[in-house]
Amino acid sequence: MMRRAYAVNILGAALLALLFGCSSATQTPSVPPKHPEDLPAGRVDCLECHKDVSTGALKPYANFRHSGVFIRSHGTYARQGQNLCSSCHKPEFCQTCHAGKEELKPDTKMGDRPDRMAPHRGDYLVTHRIDGRLDPGSCYRCHGNKSDSRCKQCHK
Amino acid sequence: MGRPTTVIPLGKRLLPSVVAITLLLPLLFAATAPAADLSLSSKTYGLAYERETAGGQKDRYVPLYEYLSADAANLGGKPLSFHFYGWGRVDLGENSGSDSTSGEVGSIYLEYLHPEGNAQGKLGRFFLTEGAAMEIIDGAFVKATTPGGLGVSLYGGIPVEYSILDTTSPGDSLFGGRVFFVRPGFVEIGASYLKENGSFQDGKDRELVGGDLWLRVAPSVELTGQATYNRSVSEMASQRYAVRIVPGATFDISAGYESYTYKGLFQPALNPAFVSPSVNPDDEVRTIFGIVDWAFTPGWTLEVAGKILRHDKSDPGDANRGEVGVRYTYNDKKDVAGFSAAFVAADQAVNEYQEYRGFASYSPSKLRMTLDALTQRYKEAPIPGNGEKNQYQVVATAGYQLLASLQLSGNLTYTQSPNFQEDWAGLIRVNYDFATSTGGKK
To answer: What is the pTM of this model?
Structure first.
């Protein structure tokens, strides 16, 4: 049994070394770890400077324009690679909503940014019962496995 | 009889030391290496509000929150970076949570990004989205793509989960990966697998098989698809398929179909809000959605969204949701004003409500002020014994940029709702953002 696990580890390491080696051989530059210039406030329009296909995500820049459509479906893009997102967004940006444990509502934290699509505005204690009944899957994306301690106050 | 011994979990005892050491780690690199880009962000929030408890007693809460984020890129001139994000709370008044202090290390990891081909590796605690996975783990992640477009990612570690049920434990270990093929600008298709060992519902592990697709069928038309099958309960957990048309920088439209089964999606849930009997495990939700974002004239954007929700079960029944909004961007994109309205029509009157919202910001020089007003109007009084059917909230903020890296701002919030007859809350916010480069290119 031990010998088998050892072999699997060796095989895995060899496979990774091969892949990293192949990545070295490719001509495609990696997405930079951070955006080289400061971006303006508000929604980003990548098309103002970029054309064609985004390095890293390998999809057209138009798809990453921060429109309402993109924001609602950003998870689809993130599940195929976070590189491009992380060149501008630090981990704290994602974890404002996708937190393991969180007490402050995003709209409380960002009360000075009403233009952001921060969820749970108003006294959401009331409205979340309705939204949770009708579409619990939309709650689960942030509050499923990674449940937050705030829920504990009522859901004991 | 002696005082009972308080047992503090090892992780909790070590946490402050681990955080201190890891925060200093990039500074050590910076001191000895020719290059490093450092950034530090501190956000301190002081909240103040009052709550009336049963019996008429009024408790005053003054929690103080600190959110700290540190990032160091280009460590030693190498494509190596370090990231930290965490927060903590201390109560200056009554306990606002189950204890007077709380906190979490959200992320703390080292990342290596290969200069070519987007090969990467992560080690530590990080938020991971990869195919069927959307997790926070303490572990490792590697991803690489061959010049031919075939790639693989692998990850493994301990899931970071906070069960709020005393009887439910988080998973013991989690691992998985994704195999994908990508052709730049045309297609990306992936198959993924995730296994989390632990005792979830019915004592089963969590085992997911996923598929994802992005396909450009025409210059401005893309198809996306994402499906997850839960092997543990032999159920399709969720599916989402959408077509999106992006003809230019001013118009964006998407429509699609989404569905999930309660049994498949919630099987591994640790949050009791999602555990039977709160939801019927035999129910299935099907959604048809459409979204339009149209910058119809410079500065002005129209947003329209609609959703048709269909349930297998008559309770909670079906519903339709519609939203429409207009935004105006001005002052070199620094300021935005907008108005929106949302409507939910449902089989059951208890599920129906309307929402109206208006907001605006004004930023002359170093001053910034915002106003945000919202009302939600329920068809039926949502709290039995309380006839109030509407809620109102107004948030006013003012802030001043004291230094290039230091901003002071405050919120004043007024809420009237079925929960709070009249509620005032105050917040003071101190933002400190520091960034420096010690030789690396910006």
So the answer is: 0.88
